[in-house]
Amino acid sequence: MLKHHVLFDETVIAARVDQLARAIRKNLPDLAPVTIGLLTGSFIFLGDLVRALARLGVEPQVDFMAVSHYGPSMESSGQVQVKKDTALDLTGRPLLIVDDILDSGRTLSVVRDRLVQRAPSWLRTCVLLDKPSRRIVPISADYVGFEVPDVWVIGYGLDAGGEGRALPYVAALEREEN
Predict the structure, then answer these.
(1) Model's pTM, two decimal places?
(2) The predicted structure's pLDDT at residue 177
(3) Which residues, given as ranges, of the chain have pLDDT below 70?
(4) How far is the C-alpha of 30 from the C-alpha of 28, rounded, in Å?
(5) Nearest Cα to Cα of residue 68 among 96, 33, 42, 89
(6) Spatial distance between the Cα atoms of 4 and 151, rounded to a whole number of angstroms
(7) Where are the beta strands (DSSP E) in 46-93?
(8) Closest listed residue to residue 70, CA positions, set 170, 160, 176, 167
(9) What domains can you pick out in the chain, each with its CATH number?
């Protein structure tokens, strides 16, 4: 296992997901939004978020897009690739895009711009983690779980080269000393 230290444990994450759901519920124009999670990192967060929304009377339709600019390495290629798009008709529907982390801003910007062309009635973005120190594209999320420093994070759906995704908490990788 990769050496790491916990940033946000299960209890803290669960409480924050509930807070996000309440904020989203308050702003939703319709109780049947479409939620689109960006794979692979968002799958755990999206699952917890839609359950929290359901406890508040919201019945989201769930879909996913597979979008990547990392590939198998831990270095961004800088090119965002849409590997799986949504086939849902978004016209006139409220839409919530859910991602694991807002880092450079490239992925969320490409996806948002792509989906806004499909004429949803309302479009908001929600990220578990925000790393503003790495922002290249000027974008911010409408709903943010936690801000994180410029460290590589794993757990709760996020990975480092395929490792750490199933950890029940969010952790920072520890730098290896040479």
Answers:
(1) 0.92
(2) 61
(3) 69-78, 177-178
(4) 5
(5) 42
(6) 11
(7) 61-68, 81-84
(8) 160
(9) 4-173 (3.40.50.2020)
